[in-house]
Amino acid sequence: MTTKNNSEKNHKRVLLVLGASFIPMSVVVGILIFSYNKNVDSGHSIARLQEEIKKEEVRGAEMRDALAQFYASQGAEDFARERGLIQEAKPRYITVASQKWDTDIILSSHQ
């Protein structure tokens, strides 16, 4: 009498199921790794931009302080008189688009 061994068939089916599920699982793991790396890169970019913002805020404060010291120590009227400048009643503002930031720099006279 001959007996048929079904364990070989079952073994092949298990390997087929495992092999077929390996491909989608690999794709999902790859997507997760890619999205994690993008998230980490974004975090580093945000931290770098925050540092740049802090530096620019300090630079702006230093410029405002220097301007205030200039007006306080030398006197804007004397400075303007020496150079033949006159104060306009309605000054026009000059705007210059900044290359680094999405803002405008506004230059005006101190009143």
Task: Describe the protein in words.
- This protein is mostly helical.
- The chain has one domain (8-85).
- It is 67% helix and 7% strand.
- The chain is built from two helices and two strands; from the N terminus they run ααββ.
- It has a two-stranded antiparallel sheet with strand order 1-2.
- The longest helix has 67 residues, at 7-73.
- The N and C termini lie far apart (112 Å).
- The model has no long low-confidence stretch (mean pLDDT 81).
Features:
single chain, 111 residues, mainly alpha, two-stranded antiparallel ribbon
List strands and helices in order, with pairings.
Blueprint lengths: L6 H67 L2 H7 L11 E4 L6 E4 L4
Antiparallel strand pairs: 1-2
Q: Count the domains.
A: 1
Tell how many strands the DSSP assignment holds.
Answer: 2
Describe the biggest sheet? 2 strands, antiparallel
> Rough shape?
rod-shaped
- Major β-sheet strand ordering: 1-2
Number of helices: 2
Provide the residue-averaged pLDDT.
Answer: 81
Q: What would you call the structural class?
A: mainly alpha
Percent helix, as a range, is 55-70%
Spans with pLDDT under 50 lasting ≥5 residues? none
Taking Cα atoms only, what radius of gyration do you get, to the nearest Å? Answer: 35 Å
- For the terminal residues, how far apart are their CA atoms? 112 Å
The succession of helices and strands, N to C, reads HHEE
Beta-strand residue fraction: 5-15%
Oligomer: single chain
